[in-house]
Amino acid sequence: MSESFAYFLTQDPNTVELPLPVQNTDRVAVVRGAVTYWSTLTGTTPGTYVYVVPTNGSTQTAVGGQPKYQFNPAAPLASLNVVLPPTPADGQTFQIRTSRDITTLNVTAPGGSTVNGTGYVLAGGGNVEYLYVLSEDTWFVG
């Protein structure tokens, strides 16, 4: 299944459309009159997310720069696996939201990073957020 997403950076009257995932190294050109201003994005981009209708036992793998998932399963799930984004920046956050119950939410990280907090029951309408601490190479739940 192919999905496409867009992020809109609005600076009245200019709108810049970027394909997701937006990376923290992406540069955005804003043209005002005859002058082009370049802005480098930092951290995650507010308002961006990936919407998924997952199935029981499936694995969802985040991409670099992705800040959150919004899950909307057709029915409550016994289990769901989530792989956090690769090469996170110190202080990066990642949020997982769901519209229906997930009995066991298994969260892992690529590249040998540790995840402090997994195997959760996540109730419908609930969310869980992780914070990456570079000095520990660990995603902490909070």
Task: Write up what this structure looks like.
The protein has 142 residues and is mainly β. The protein has 2 domains: 6-40, no CATH class; 50-141. 0% of the residues lie in helices and 50% in strands. It has no helices and 14 strands. It has strands spanning 6-11, 14-19, 27-32, 35-40, 50-52, 59-61, 68-71, 77-83, 93-98, 102-108, 114-116, 120-122, 127-133, 138-141. The strands form 4 sheets. The chain has a 6-stranded mixed sheet with strand order 5-7-9-13-14-11, with no helix packed on it. Strand 1 and strand 2 form a beta hairpin. The chain is globular and about 55 Å long.
Features:
single chain; 142 residues; mainly beta; 2 domains; four-stranded mixed sheet; 0% helix; globular; disordered N terminus
Helix/strand order: EEEEEEEEEEEEEE
Biggest beta-sheet profile: 6 strands, mixed
User: Helix amount, in percent?
Assistant: under 10%
Structural class: mainly beta
What is the spatial order of strands in the main beta sheet? Answer: 5-7-9-13-14-11
Instruction: Tally the beta strands.
Output: 14
Calculate the terminal CA-CA distance, rounded to whole Å: 32 Å
Proportion in β-strands? over 45%
Backbone shape = globular
- Count of all domains: 2
The residue-averaged pLDDT reads: 79
Low-confidence stretches: 1-15
Number of helices: 0
Tell me the radius of gyration: 17 Å
Compact summary:
The protein is an all-beta fold and 142 residues long. It is built from no helices and 14 strands.
List strands and helices in order, with pairings.
Layout: E1 6-11, E2 14-19, E3 27-32, E4 35-40, E5 50-52, E6 59-61, E7 68-71, E8 77-83, E9 93-98, E10 102-108, E11 114-116, E12 120-122, E13 127-133, E14 138-141
Parallel strand pairs: 5-7, 6-8, 7-9, 8-10, 11-14
Antiparallel strand pairs: 1-2, 3-4, 9-13, 10-12, 13-14
